[in-house]
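Could you help me review a protein record that somebody else here produced? My question to you is simply how this chain folds and whether the tokens agree. Thanks in advance; the entry in question is below:
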Amino acid sequence: MKYDIGTMVRARGREWVVQPESSEEFLMLKPLGGSETESTGIYVGTGGEKIESAAFDLPKSTSFSAASSARLLRDAAKLAIRSGAGPFRSLARLGVEPKPYQLVPLLMALRLDPVRLLIADDVGVGKTIEAALIARELIDRGEVQRVAVLCPPHLAEQWQAELRTKFGLDATLVLPTTVKRLERQCRTGQSIFDKFPNVIVSLDFVKSDRWRDEFLKKAPELVIVDEAHTCAEGTEGRSKRHQRYRLLEGLAARNDRHLILVTATPHSGKEDAFRSLLKLLNPEFAKLPPDMSGADNDQIRTQLARHLVQRKRADVRAYMDANTPFPERSDAETTYALHTEYAHLFDDVLNYARESVRDTGEAMNRQRIRWWAALGLLRAMASSPAAAAETLFNRASMADEQDAALIESTGHSLVYDPAEDETDALDTTPGAQTESEASENTRRLLAFAARAEALHGPKDAKLTKLRGIVQDMLGTGHQPIVFCRFIATAEYVAEALRGQLKGVEVRAVTGRLTPDEREGVIAELSAHTPRVLVATDCLSEGINLQRDFSAVIHYDLPWNPTRLEQREGRVDRYGQASPTVRVVTLSGSDNRIDRIILQVLVRKHRTIRGTLGMTVPAPDEVDSILDLVFQKVLLQERKDAIMSPLFELPEQADLDLRWQQAADREVRSRSRFAQNSIRIDDVAQELKATRAALGDTLAVQQFTLDTLKLAGVTVTEKQGRFQVERPALPELRDVFGQGMRVRFDDVQERGSVNLSRNAALTEQLASFVLGQALDDQDDSLAKRAGVIRTAGVTTQTTLLLLRHRFHLNGRKGNRTWQTLAEELDPVAFQGSPDHPVWLGEDAVRALFDLQPDSNLPPQVKQQRLDAVLQDFDTLRPFLATRALTRSESLLEAHTRVRGALRGLGATYALETPAEPDVIGLYIFVPQPAGVRS
């Protein structure tokens, strides 16, 4: 027998609801009143289990409870729904409650077919949530069946965790380290991308000749590209970018593929790179005029605005009066002066570096090897005596290399901070030795190394300064991350702080650890307070740390200003518990290298960010400018000549000008293409409909606290934290264990569980209360019936809690599909069932807040309920009409947000297979005059 989705059946001694994934021989069932975790599959084909149809009974007149039942049961039934009938299909299934501003990209996407969207919101605003929300919505609408995320490899595991925990999507990692194992799971001739429906793929892995064509043939209908700016094709012609862009061009060539590009820096001051991304959204954008300003180009900008959302934190902080608690950032610079012995060593090393880079008539390759070795040595000297010693002991990795291009790329990666699109962060120390072990220069370097090792501890003024900064931060309640450039420095600093800071847990995370090991160290460290994390730039991307840390110390200045933002962005983001994030930048007052970086890069970066409220990456010329500046340092003979001309270098002025021009272009770009295709009224309309259908965090707080109060559980509140003591009921202990600290806001706080509308614990608690009521247990916290005498009504008023189940049928081209939509619908009437006067929505909502003013004898309550139940058949025509009205409203909402009424993409039709279930029935009778409460 075939069972339609949404129908009730009885099997294994209980009632179930048939789910959309069912077939004629295999039913996917969710228990009536149960959670999705209790869903199961039952084989009903030949020889399978016996299944029989079931009906939803009306409430019993013999089982009733107090007035609080109506509201408690309403909230439980609403919060237990996971196939919501609001305008968005996905919001009831998420493990996160999106902020109103995060619905804007979703609305924009649903008005496009195919979805071609560039999400370019600021760092820490939640672009991952916005992109994944679109994917989840299209899946739940039945329009998409498979999803791929293309991202840098160090972000793959974070994407996997986000999709699994917040969006209920299991995705397979396709990386160089996993591909052989995945291939073994495939049949002969089967592609990995056929075998696994949802994948997270290393962008640099799949762009290769070996995999690109296969991915283009088998790629899912929806592809999300993270850090999309690293794929933009500009005039620099980098081979990696070129390959990435060719891959994205191939994906975009299929005109029905959904493509979502995600980046915080789409423009980056490079007009050609920005336009290359726009062409992926719409081929027509290749014809955009060079200047898109002016009234003549209004239509062009309007068309672009449909595909581009780009907002700063200030734009979303109070969007629709919903406060998003981004922290304030407190920036400070502080300096130290080198110990006398360290200063002497620095001068001696600098003199050696000058000698090594002078033109001695050697071949160009040898000159460049010496150049990179000298720069690397100076950078290590500025970092720590540990990094300096290790560099002095080590042979330069390119010392014997003959290939000029490889010498440059290796030197650049080891010395500078590579661009994120070129390689992962390197934190190994460079080598200084370029000659044989027996050479005089090598003996000098080894002697320097011995001197550097003797500078550990008290003679390291930088380390002493750091200790004071850390102690100050810990004293003000901040938990800091100390960022270093080299592994040797990080391990040295961590060991020193462990010995100096009593009672403080200090751990180091560097490139020596795998991504899993890094997360393990952080999890262990986060259990301690106070705590200090010392890390290299292997942690500047990929792991969000706002829950556990609230301060950043730049122990080593990055030579790429983008690293500043990446480091600080680990803690300065949405969900940070501290209202203020502290940032301290440490530099040497008499350290020539630090002075150059501070003046040329760091302060300019901070000035632009402070002025514009956003980050603008440094121009591509920054490395060549630094080369010129360092040449100035290394080729000057006198110390005073090294310091004074530094800030008069013409090339630096040129860099400042180019950087400011890039910032100006970014401002103009944002003003021209600011998201204006979705009005606030559009979001407000859909948000109101969603909250009406599903409830929100405020409803969760009230429901949770009401449930615990009725169950006799002690709850205490302090500064937004609710401590739930050990429940007596075993079922509630399944939810709250032996006790739990919970929050109902956005603050991510170690030791607290955030209960949003979509949290697993919320569904578990709601399903428990609803299941108890539907099973009609004697000790149910909520009953399906009640009679309340109150002064809040003047005539008998009956409240019905209805649950509708609709079939939402979708069609796109030749493909059709069906999904289940559920809705809780309270209605009420005055008078008797045979002559009802139905109330408006506001009057119905007011009934839930009425309190009893006096009691009625149990037999009177039963008589009142019996009288309504006996005449209930007279209400059925209204209920059928109500179901039809609600289905029409639901269909209108779905076609409105998807744009189907304008002939775009998928179209929808709705079936109302049966009259609604009556979850609850509550009668309110007037308080007689003269009767005392």
Residues 650-673 form the longest helix (24 residues). The mean pLDDT is 85. The longest strand covers residues 797-812.
